[in-house]
Amino acid sequence: MEIITIFEGNLYAVKYADEQPDELERIFGEWSDVQILFDFFDEHEQDLAYFNLTKEIAVKETICEAKQFRKELLKCKDSPEMAIGLFEKLSYNNAYELLLKQKSKRKWLRIYAIRIEENCFLITGGAIKLTQTMNERKHTNDELVKLERVRNYLTDNNVFDFDSFNDMQSEL
Amino acid sequence: MMKKSENRKNFDKLISDKKSNWLDEALWMEENEAWLDKSAQIAIRILSEIHRQKHVNGMTQKKLAERMGVREQYINKVVKGKENLTLKTISKIEAVLGIKLISVEKETVISKQIEVRKQEEKPWASKNQKEYTNLSYQFISNYQLNEPIPNYSQA
Predict the structure, then answer these.
(1) B15, B27, B79: residue with CB nearest A35
(2) Which residues of A touch B44 (CB under 8 A)?
(3) Domains in chain B, ordered, with CATH?
(4) Which residues of chain A does B29 touch, with a Cβ-Cβ cutoff of 8 Å?
(5) pLDDT in tens, B18-35
(6) Is A93 left (phi over 0), alpha (psi -120 to 50) or beta?
(7) Which residue of A33, A41, A159 to mutate against B (max B Cβ within 10 Å)?
(8) A43 phi and psi, to 5 degrees?
(9) Are A93 and A137 in contact (CB under 8 A)?
(10) 3-state SS track over chain B
């Protein structure tokens, strides 16, 4: 496992294996690959029925959402601290997620991260979240496993996430 | 008791020297957004059609490649939606799958060209000049739209 710089000082991403890209590069690669998306929505057709969408529309919407995501992140290129404001804390696990905040339209892309410091996040992965909770589907549950794996790796190296660190300090 | 700065130092020690390709890739996609959007739409249409025809005539990406006389790997690239396709390739895919992937809005393009020429036409132009202009309109509508339209007024 390696930690790769996205925006120095503020945003990093995990690279799980040598032959793989880092997680930010991987998820954006997948979210713009029509074949991968088509196969994904073919596999999750029952979830799309809830949204009343065809695979074709779902692929188009995903590419469009990923594009907006990319633009939001690129806005932070020259002032990386802005990227911090894009993350929201999940209601469990001391993890964070980055999602587009326009409420009017359905948004299902998620980028998951662990907060290292107030102004520093480490991206552990990302997913197309079609269900209410992450453990309902294997691919989102895998993201929870990755979050835990990274947290353990950090702890083994004496690095604690922002919230755990604060909790530890207040207990002492 | 561990200090915040120590926590950060320990984290910094774990940061690799390797560079992420994300930023370069993201900037490239921004620059090429217009044609990438079209390429993705074409890929969706192709995959959708292959999927539909699979149950009718057993169409697959491999068969599409064979009938087009290209390698299967090339079709694998095309359906990723990131390939800058030529009109020749698009036409071949259209022919094999029996679908229309792109069309040029003929009327709109011609109308715009005529509008521009009409604006350029001076009200005091001679009868001969007007006849000449009308001839050039006719020529535009007969001309292939993907080829440059010669401007005879400069000749």
Answers:
(1) B79
(2) 34, 38, 56, 59-60
(3) 31-103 (1.10.260.40), 106-154 (no CATH)
(4) 32, 67, 70
(5) 989 999 999 999 999 999
(6) left
(7) A159
(8) -70, -30
(9) no
(10) CCCHHHHHHHHHHHEEEEECCHHHHHHHHHHCHHHHHHHHHHHHHHHHHHHHHHHHHCCCHHHHHHHHCCCHHHHHHHCCCCCCCCHHHHHHHHHHHCCCCCCCCHHHHHHHHHHHHHHHCCCCCCHHHHHHHHHHHHHHHHCCCCCCCCCHHHC
Smallest CA–CA distance from B5 into chain A, residue? A117
Per-residue pLDDT of chain A (172 residues; tens, 9 = 90+): 999 999 998 999 999 998 899 999 999 999 999 999 999 999 999 999 888 899 999 999 999 999 999 998 998 888 877 878 888 888 777 788 887 776 556 789 999 999 998 889 999 999 999 988 888 889 999 999 999 999 999 999 988 877 776 666 666 5
Shortest CA distance from A117: residue in chain B: B8
Structure tokens belonging to residue A90: 């999940």
Question: How many domains does one find in chain A?
Answer: 1
- Which ipTM did the prediction report? 0.88
Q: Which domain holds residue A60?
A: 2-171
